[in-house]
Queue: 4 jobs
Job 1
Amino acid sequence: MMKAGSNVSRARRRRKETLTGLLFVAPALVGFLVFYLLPTLRAIQISLTDWNLMRAPKFVGFANYTKLLGDENFWHSAWVTFAYVLYNIPIQTALGLLLAVLSDRLARAVSLRAVIIAPYLISNVVAALVWLMMLDPILGLVNGFLEIVGIGRQGFLASPDQAMVSVAAISTWRHTGLTALLFYAGLQAIPRHLYEAARLEGAGEWTMFHRITLPLLRPVLAFVLVTSLIGSFQVFDVIAVATAGGPSNSTRVILWYIYENAFKFNKMGYASAISVVLFVTLILVTLLQMRLLKADQSDLT
Amino acid sequence: MKTITPQAALGYLVLAVFVFLSLLPLWMALKIALTHPSDVYTSAASLTPETFTLGNFLRVMGLPSDIELTASRASPIDFMLALRNSVIYTALTVSGQIFFSALAAYAFARMSFPGRDLLFFAFLAATMIPSMVLFIPNFILVKQLGLLNTFTGLVAPTILMTPFAVFFLRQFFLSSPKELDEAARLEGASQFQIFWRIALPIQKGPIATLGILLAIQSWNEFFWPFLVGRDASVRVMAVALSDFMSQTGRGNPDWSGLMAAIVLSIIPVITLLVVFGRQIVESLQTSGMK
């Protein structure tokens, strides 16, 4: 039998818990509303205006979006970004996987993984500057080496043909360790007895990799591909420091194009429209990738 | 005894190459930093400095040094000021973000209130938004509030929360025992006292790990400080380094000075990696940064 008094006190306690809970969440909620939710909505709103921050914004409907469709520079930057992703992702993923499998088999000391992750823990800015030095035509070690072996000095970041590949190589240098680390964690979840059984049946390293490791690593692979792809589409820091979008706009990726429009030409509306298009594209790419890789299913059942 | 197969030998060789290539650029930065500016171009293909000097470190720290550069090549950047700014920016961001995110994470994990799950889902969904979408409106907001080139403007978007920090901490609060909370509540402790005296100290380990990750991330942050903190009085190290490069010209930059500044700027991160290598590696393995 329930007494009326305990009902009242329970309701009071619940009300108190609600109030305390909201108080606890309040500062983070303010941060979320002011710096995440509101700006997302505002970005969409600004994208429908013509606004240089000097005068009041003028509503122009979807004009920025229709302009975008015919903007050669936009399509060029989309293409450049796509090329960057193509250079960066497959090599970085393959190298990361190789590194993870090797350290899982041969060297499981945490110190090795700490060394491998070092390039990721220094900033993009430092990575870009150090590689500017490494790839410099005169004092760079890479060109010094290429000259000794008889290939000859290359322009790298200063060459319109090689700049984007060079930026991708810098990103690969910085991120391969992290990719390897995530794969390494995934490998730890694969039961060892599967390998022992396969070995008893005479399977070689390649067969085991192909038949056991790769299928069971698929959820991790999906996670790594989704996150690194999203990151790649937003490459900015290295470009800002190493090439500033050049030479001859050969590294003017989407984010650099947005940055130029917003902060150099003060076209806030147009820049916001591009950023909204990028946002929608990223969501679509993510959904597509999850679907293709069946990210939510594991073969380990 | 284990014999090393040719396959394994090849594997070790590949690992060695990975380690070598991971560290080579950093080694070369140190080499150039230890080279006299006038010798930088003469020993490009060498892995060790031909002349050895600490002068570059001294001069970027603003100390007397035997290296004199002509005015056109001398650094226009005050690196000690930038270092101080990076320390302030990092300390504010990390302490604020952890405290407020922990409060929210604790509430999400331990209390029930209407809208809790919806709110948490919204926080999670926010991780999907590209930073550029947020940066334009956030820049405009900070500008309109007159907070450009202030530490307030610099830390505003990250001091109250990031979705990652809330998510990270909530997992730990979910798994910690509830009995202590109950006991303290019976003794009349307030919810905040329970959080501050019991829940938070139990999670010392994860909080320290998060602190290390966030400190490295804040120390390296470039885009937002690049937009709102260009004035020397608040300019952080990452922005100062990039300005240094663009201001001394691409033709003949002060490479040895720049590399000395870079080496100084990564010492805190490398120190954290040496001391807390295991925590960093293990937390990145399970969560990934961001």
Job 2
Amino acid sequence: MGARLVGAQVQRLEDPRLLTGKGQYVDDIVLPGMVQAAFVRSTHAHARIVSIDTTAARAMPGVRGVFTLNDLGPAVARDRMPQTAPSPAIRRSVTQYVLARDEVCYVGEAVVMVVADTRHQAEDAAARVLIDYDVLPAVVDCRAALTGQTAAHHGAADNLAARLSVGFGDIEAAFRTAPHRVTLTLDQHRGVAHSMEGRAVLAAQDAVSGKLTVWSATQSPYMVRRFLARVLGIDEQDLRVIAPDVGGGFGPKAVFYPEEAALAAAAVKLGRPVKWAEDRKEHFVSTTNQRDQHWQMDVAFDDTGKIHGIRGHVQHDNGAYLPYGLILAATSLAPFPGAYALPALQMTLDVIYTNTTPTSPVRGAGRPNAIFAIERAVDRVADHLGLDPAEVRRANFVRADQFPYVTGMKARDGSPVAYDSGDYAACLDRALDMADAAGFPARRDAARAQGRYLGIGVASFIEDTGLGPFEGATVRVTPKGRVTVLTGAASQGQGHATTLAQVVADGLGVALTDVTVISADTERFSYGAGTIASRIAVTAGSSAHLAAAKVRDKVLRYASDKLEVAIGDLELNGGFVHVAGVPEMRISLGDVALALAGTVGQRVPSGLEPGLEATAYFESTATPHSSGSTVAEVEVDIETGAVTLLNHVIVHDCGKVIHPGIVDGQITGGAVHGIGNALFEDMLYDAEGQPVSTNFGEYLLPTATEMPPIRIGHLETLSPLNPLGVKGAGESGTIPAIPAVVRAVENALAPFGVQINRYPLNPERVVNLIDASRGKT
Amino acid sequence: MDDIRHIALTVNGQPVECDTPVRLHLGDFLRGILGLTGTHLGCEHGACGACTVLVDGEAVRSCLMLAVQANGRQITTIEGLADPDGTLHPLQQAFAEKHGLQCGYCTPGMLTSLAAFLRDTPDPTETQVRDAISGNLCRCTGYQPIVEAALLAAARMRQTEGVR
């Protein structure tokens, strides 16, 4: 039977609830006796806590409890939070306490938790908590943090969390022999994730069993269970973590947070359910984000534009703590050498503590940074030689006949990185075609004649997806013939329920609406990792496929026995197994399920194991690499510095497309996120470490009016690394957007000789670039 | 601080009479007192539009209006957008078809904003639709499918109007 639903634009199973206000996000859940938490957060970037006076707060109406670290109990107060992503490369791992003990290291660090009958009362009481701070010097700019005298953590010898290094080939020889070189200095800034739902936690302990349940707006319920159990000093079996409907994630919700531990501890102490929903201001300062990276890079190349070697160094602003190991930092180097066959590479990256909000991956993690650097390098090579940037890309691409292509890089487990499949040149050519790049010079010249400035930019990329080890799935058929899919993989809007249902429905020959997907509840499925790194279609999708295949096999063996026909003569269709060509010789899947569910005193039929269900854990041991190219066209107003996006094309290869609408939705939304990074989003701190962009008036997100038409093309080169042939798509729109848009602006300003090495490109910066260039001439 | 006032209003066609703290904004009132959790709070400073509801037919940010100000008004939330028999509003149907939502958090505010807009502007251009949702932030979709859904719904609503 061929695929019927995989590849089809079916309507999402999630939508009927979400469109009618029947979603259930954490803050929508109400439990009897539930009380509400609010946090008192540090107002200083760096300070010693001299004293905390909670007397007045405790006397406020409705207050149930006021908690400093010690009030949360000895298990929680004993130590800093665990390192959730340990790595031997970490030189000095500093995580925060669940509530600050004697030092605060960023504005927004939680110091005191107040619990009251209502959120208003909790906030009223929080305002009465008196904290006496002894302000310490703050280190804010990571470039100064390694050379200066100021320590981000009091008493620390330096601010270096780790120094990463990647490389391959003979870099000295590359620079000795190549006839040309360019040097790049790039200042990159990526901002806050801003899922429209903030973080939220609800913790409740069952009075009889003692079992603790935590609902969290998290991407990683299993990681939260593991580390929360550790912090509380309880067994994982006494803790259930559920991620219900989650209103967007984009990375930061993958992290285990202090508030999850504080609420759990308070729920136990108070014997009541305790809820907290982050407000937007808290999201700005206390949810992890991404910020500055400063890149220095030398590129060696020949007359044809072929790059022989890249070497350089990155300074990475890590923020005050290291909640998620080196995941973000490592992904800033891992995408090398991009879409290109590069003979030699040597890159280092310093992970530097500053007194700012901790960082962790935001959509794309460090990949947009790395691809920006690589693509800037390619553009610079083209400019140096006077070549077409697309031509330089073609000269350097890994060719379609080179797959699997071993890049020289090492994966996280030390194994060699190999790009599995693709056709990078075909993606670029199609993107140029869709964007009518050939017609651009005419459009540019016509505009110029009217005093307008148009520019075009191209960027090519790869994305490592499907990160291991696994997400699993159980497929179970009920006696009514309905199918339940259980998985640990949490969804934050990606439509996993639909995607997994498509895969399973095809495997069993049932209708999409016969499938129910239950996910992200540690009580319903045993193991899970987390929804990060564009990995769920590859991992959970493959597991669902394999589990469905096992169930199908069981159905066939049962029916073969009952109908006395060979397995090869049977088909699954419409909820039945039937003899091929004889549809009336059939058994419903529900009847098979009922038979295998057992009857007292009778043997399970057909020599089969009990139950019509199966579980699979597909382990992703090698990395499917998505790829593609983006073309952006912009107009720049040289008087105001405003950038108008005219056109944005992405041709993308994520292997088999399971659901065109969902994949295009991921790409489009991701592209807009990248455009926001390129042009608008700026999380700013002053010299004392005070955040100065903490509302949506000061921090600009992309809105509908600025966004260009976004058009998407697909190339489907199947990945040989999993049974579905899929590669991840969740971050592919974001990754190439920044270099493409930045190049388009630079291209528009070519008459001024402007070179752009920094984003976001807000109007002020664009005007300054033009003015600086005019001043030179 | 905890002054209480009695208010009477109509929510999704049903009369409601109850006490509310005077400082409660309409969004918290709808969610916390009436249990209508389909209205979502995204920023609570009037910038994201997630909490938009219809007040006497006009799109209003429920985080910027006190519950007591809703006294005597007609409120429609996402829970009241579909017909009483469950038939989806053309916008809801178009959102499902055009993949106009992902996580669903901004969706209620998008739908209520667009419902008011299409009533006043039945034959909008794409630019007008984009303007209409320029005060609604979405981090998932990139807006494009929402715009497509709004135009599809508008076309269908005009057709239905023509039939009548």
Job 3
Amino acid sequence: MTITVVMVVRLHNLFAVVMLGGIYSLLAATMFVLFDAVDVAFTEAAVGAGVSTVLLLGALALTSREEKDTGKLAVIPLIIVITVGIALIYGTLDMPLYGDPNAPIHVHVAPYYLERGMVETSVPNIVTAVLASYRGFDTLGEVCVVFTAGIGVLMLLSRERLTRRYRGVGGDKR
Amino acid sequence: MNHHLVVRVVSKLLIPFILLFGLYVQFHGDFGPGGGFQAGVIFAAALILYALVFGLDNARKVAPDSAVRVGMATGVLLFGFTGVASLLGGGNYLDYSALSQNPLGGQHLGILLVELGVGITVCSVMIAIFFSFAGRNHRLDKLEE
Amino acid sequence: MEFPGLYDYWIVVALMMAGLYIVIARRNLVKQMVGLGIFQSSVFIFYIAMGKVEGGTAPILTEGATAYSNPLPHVLILTAIVVGVATLALGLALIVRINEAYGTIEEDEIHEKEAQQ
């Protein structure tokens, strides 16, 4: 997985970069399965490797395929990145160990969902129960965000807008 | 892609199964992995495959722009009105137990409706985004000709 | 994945820094979007790794299983992935418009053309 990412950083052919992005998503999905998150793995495989690769390819077809090679290594960003990385790793030293059942995240509301979820909603898949029932408001918000992003893309790229501009009318009709 | 016979035949075979799998994921999300988000994306992926292989114009006939736009709004409204329905039933907003006489049945109905709303919105948004990207490409080709 | 301890978090940090480097060092807008995606999914992996419980199974209730992984991060990340692709599409749409207006997707060249006007 790390190799894929390093290749993404190095390569200048954007087509290859997008394809490696798809491979990276699939690897992330397998990682999610290892972490017991089957729902998330499912979504990542469908969205990351499928839809977003297609969208990136569509955008490439509309723009250019090659990245311009600047030739020089960017030193200042590299220093910043390494510093931030070291700071973050220092931060992880205080984290609870991987898979520790007594980590703070596992003793708050999660046991309630796991114990009461079946009794209160009769849905065995706790992820679905929490998503749709306990945290319905969250999900409503997320759906609104997706909806708004869709409207934004339609506004930016839709046909009416283009024809109006090519006719030279321009501006919004109010 | 008109000359790729193998691609055409294989995708013709695959698309019904992808759609069926999308429906399974949508309605079986209560019991196994799955739900509205995944099902919407899978459904949209089937249509995107169709558009890639058989051309954008044919795909637009299957899913007209107006229908896609209506679908985007319908999903959100279905979600919102499920909440309003539980308000009318005497509960809190999005408290599905009030939807039916039996709280468990109400929860089940509510989750099903909400997931359906999520699925419709996600599917339509993905299709709309893909169509607008691909459609722009198409038109630019024509302009260059 | 038998490594105990903090190994997973370090992978996450490495991925996140690679994404950050692409975003700030590279001048190509599409590549910056890919870098942003890598950054994003490193955060996803971080959340999911925190939700893992040793010896647990996926949070779908079945008979015979006693320990389950934490379902809460799964829910958050599930929605975040779909929102992520929607925002990615929005960013790409903006890039396409920029390309139509300036004829390039390299940040330097855009700045040059801005300065000329």
Job 4
Amino acid sequence: MEFEFGREDLKRLQELSRLDIPEGEEEQTLTELRRILAFMERLSAVKDADEEGSMPVGALRADEPAPAFDREALMRNAKRKKDGAYLAPQTVE
Amino acid sequence: MTALELAGRLHKREMRVLDALSEAQKKTQALNPSVNAVTEWEETETLRAAEQAQKRIDEGKPLSPLDGVPIGVKDLICIKDRRTSCASRMLADYVSPYDATAAAHLKAAGLLLPARCNMDEFAMGSTTETSVYGPTRNPWDLTRSPGGSSGGSAAAVAAGMLPAAIGSDTGGSIRQPAAYCAVTGMKPSYGAVSRYGLVAYASSLDQIGPFGGDAADCAALLDILAGPDGRDATCSGLPAPCFPALSGDVRGIRIGLPREYFGEGLDEEVRARILEAADIFRELGADVEECSLEGLDLAIPAYYVLACAEASSNLSRYDGLKYGYRAEDAETPDSLYRRSRTEGFGREVRRRILLGSFVLSAGYYDAYYKKAKAARALIRRGFDAAFRTFDLLLCPVAPSTAPRLGESLQDPLKMYLSDIYTVSVNLAGLPGLSLPCGLDGQDLPVGMQLIGPRFRDELVLRAGDAFQKHTRFHLNKPEVKRA
Amino acid sequence: MTAYEAAIGLEVHIELNTRTKIFCGCSTAFGGEPNTHCCPVCSGLPGALPRLNRAVVEKAVLAGLALGCDIRRHNVFDRKNYFYPDLPKAYQISQLYLPICEGGGLLLSSGRFVRIREIHMEEDAGKLVHDPWTESTLCDYNRCGVPLIEIVTQPDLKCADEVTEFLQTLKTRLEFAGVTDGKMQEGSLRADLNISLRPVGSSTLGTRTEMKNMNSFKAIHKAVEVETQRQAEILNGGGRVLQETRRWDGNKDASFAMRSKENAQDYRYFPEPDLPPVDIDDTWMQELKDALPEMPDVKRERYLSELRLPERDVNILCQSAPLCRLLERCVDLGVQPRSAANWLLSEVLKLLNERGLEPADLALPAESLCRVIQLVEGGKIGRADGRNALQAAFDGQTNVDEYVARNGLLREEAGEADLEAAVRQVLAENADAVASFRAGKQKSFGFLTGQCLKALKGRADPKRVSELLRRMLEQ
């Protein structure tokens, strides 16, 4: 049985991920995703389990200020800046 | 020459640091056009570092057993003031303003970092064919892939360009290329090495690890890389250093062969090489027996659900606004994001982001993400059970040897399935060592995997080192056909 | 026509007053040049990882204790994923599944108890400013990562007055708990209003609208009034209220529907893999319970019974944690509670108002205030000079003795002979006052004292003068 995943689902994912599918690749992407998701269905047999703590619990950080990070260095990879701020296209409220 | 052997010669002053560096550069220049393992070679700072290393060596004050050795670094570990591109158009011109903790450790140990190693884009891939710099070719057969995603690191060491290199492993990205290229590569226990400055793919699975000429190289490098870090809450370091534990002795060590890992789908030659290696361990005094390990059939779906979910979130920050590729003339923020991301990311990355968004989306979270977490817990418990009887597990790294270039990307699901023996180790956070154990009928390298309990990295390396003290597989080097 | 009642719930964001951000060591100071309080972590650079600030957990717990909540001992953070230019990682680290506090609430003066559903920790987003020159948005991440607690109430509030009373009480209690400075103009408190109407007596909630990020009590009060009115008109006209987010326009005293896209967000929450769970053990829990400062209701009782301050003064003082702190410090330094309260409520509050400041902005050291009070009450300087010295200290010249010396404010003490001469003169010139005093009118004594002090031009300690006067009158 084919996994139910159609154009509308794909569009929704694109929206959530802020990604477009280039011209002509939509059909193939759909097929690929369907196959992969169908394969992942075998997880449904697993019984729900409680997450055991597996991470070493690191000590929390003290409320001590760190030396200020140089703004020039921090922002040097930004393509568009003005007066020390990142420049985005206008947000619509 | 292994990294430790080179270091020995440098520290005994039989060879000068600048000469070793220059040799590495020449070798890389000669072979890289064929192999494409290295995508950047930095000269100025490295020369300065080399001079300082020589000075320290002359004064008899090396910073570490590897002071002065040049190595490669996978292009997703941030190095201050160096391009850190993740082999992606998205970060093609990104220069990091800070050092990853691991990079800082390497520098503090005196290692030279001239080379950036090629990789799959954002570490998503098993063949190093999704790089914006073009594929890396396997030095053993230039028509084949070196594996991935740390294919460049493995190939650089295999081809003799550099004695060692650093990579990262999320689902097998160090161990599998090590196997395909006949080098030794280690994925440390999760939490051994700081992830601060490792560009994140899947946060709960990623680990930085070493490639070297042998297990001893890996142990020496791991001791430099590992350690708790105030900047990474998931990092606790290792309880004991690994290099001093390389006693060469495996007598009485109980090694399990999980039968599920030797089932259908495994290449006959690969199976044969690994079982031969098991016999060698028996000759060395280890107890080797079959065992059962639960959860293998869930490993791939669990891995891809969790990895893609985390990746979809980790990669959301790439939007053209703060750094990286920025689409021109976008009129709204959303349009800026969509176009920058669609144009900046390659196909495999986009596919995994979409998958990740799906498994986290409303209505599907329980069916996929939660179930994947449950599967993960099951797999962990399976390993815990095995390690009650056994000290180590021995199994294949990959179902076959190196695939041909261009084959794998046609069928993404098939490519994902080839990670079958490596992903469960990441899911459980265990240490995994990949080391050469022979060749198949086509003279392609076969690698075997040693898996240990969490934070018993030194035991895994000890076993690998003992194997290598009594065998010569790791000394096989390919004849690289020049372009 | 059906009678409707409002059901109002609030989501209140409070900035915690830690020195550094929740997940990195950058400063939380308000203002500053754009992106100068930033680092790879809070700016979302590749490879950066969060590290939780211990003080954030502690202040969140104190807030919960101050509001009567149950404290969750096993805490987990979650990622809330969405794209917006003020969110550099494109996810906010927050708590959805296991928030740090649950339950609790506040009692209003009407007797209604407003229940809190939960309190969780999260990080603040950056600031966006429209740039008309380039028709773009300027993004400043200084505020990214400033620690917030979000307090979510049940929809128990019924009108605008209740909402502002609730918020004021909440703000005051949290200031007394020492977890926030309450500076509204700096954005320390912002509220989202969730408003719906239902027929009186109905138990089902109606459709609600949301107004986000309100940061002035005046605007909140108006917005609640206007929105409940708007919804009532729709319902009475037979229409349906749309579930939507609305933007409040303070200039027009009206709200406007925002693009409905806002409402269709799928945040894809999942547990934050970069942060281990935070476990609060019994020892730490007890430490925090012990560390909770005295709450305003308890302080009130103590000020009335122990410090014997007048009720009117206590009511004003107990609305302001900084004033109380200053008062208690002065009392510790030996000043009479009444004098301290007097000076705080008359002079200090006046200075604050004149400069358009809030008590939270007080930088006046208690030592300076005490010195002024000591000098004035000891007769060493006149009250008017005392006020000037206080103002100078308020504005930065905190060394009071230096100020007094530099301006020559110290009274020359009048000699005994001068004192006697002055008193004798006053008695001579005011025979009828003397007579009425001798006849039993106490008030005349005060009059005569005043006259003496006037004659001495403030060069005498009032106590000495009245002693002398009394002696001489008895002669």
